[in-house]
Amino acid sequence: MIYLYLFITFFKIGLFGFGGGYGMLSLIQSEVVHHWGWMTTSQFTDIVAVSQMTPGPIGINSATYCGYTACHNAGYGIGMSVLGSATATFALMLPSFVLMILISKMFMKYMKTNSVQSIFTGLRPAVVGLLAAATLLLCTKDNFSTPDENMWQFVISVMLFVATFVGTMFFKVNPIKMIVMSGFAGLLLLY
């Protein structure tokens, strides 16, 4: 039965996940962590980190890992967990595939009309909001700790967050380099 729920959940995310993979992250977390309880927030954060470091779109990578983790946490073996990965990935991609086939000709024809441009004007702020929500949803004590629990981990986590933000935003440091450097710094400072 988990496969049906995985399919419905990720189909819905694929259907309403405007803004690409990063825009989908808050939707995915909301569903797999808060609504279904298939995994913890820290497991989801690990999935996001691995999804960013592996080749491919982050939304699809996250769906693949979430499908596997959901089935694995439900007690299924490796083979059935791989089927969960395939189900979540297929369900996430299916709406985009079908919609792009159906509207590609119409979009090219009507792309310059005021109605279509107005729709995209309305969607742009929503996409930025989804990206901001994904960021804020990941700012939890699982990722940063708290000053009461572990002051050292909290300070280092906040410093790494600020350094990564400043490095990518203002100095245009490659995000892959920032991920590697942050992982190395975390290994040195928090081990």
Write the layout of secondary structure elements.
Layout: H1 2-16, H2 20-35, H3 41-53, H4 58-73, H5 78-110, H6 114-137, H7 141-144, H8 151-169, H9 175-190
Helix pairs in contact: 1-2, 1-4, 1-5, 2-4, 2-6, 3-4, 4-5, 8-9
Q: How many helical elements?
A: 9
Cα-to-Cα separation, first versus last residue = 41 Å
Q: Provide the low-confidence segments as ranges.
A: none
The secondary-structure element order is HHHHHHHHH
Measured as a percent range, the helix fraction is over 70%
Mean pLDDT reading = 90
Q: What characteristic shape results from the CA principal axes?
A: globular
Strand content: under 5%
**Largest sheet properties:** none
Q: Radius of gyration, Cα only, in angstroms? A: 19 Å
Number of strands: 0
Structural class: mainly alpha
Protein model, in words:
It is globular, with a radius of gyration of 19 Å. α1 runs antiparallel to α2, α1 (2-16) packs parallel to α5 and α8 (151-169) packs antiparallel against α9. The mean pLDDT is 90. It has helices at 2-16, 20-35, 41-53, 58-73, 78-110, 114-137, 141-144, 151-169, 175-190. It is 82% helix and 0% strand. It is mostly helical and 191 residues long.
In brief, what are we looking at here?
By secondary structure, the chain is mostly helical. The chain contains nine helices and no strands. The N and C termini lie far apart (41 Å).
Keywords summarizing the entry:
82% helix; mainly alpha; single chain; 191 residues
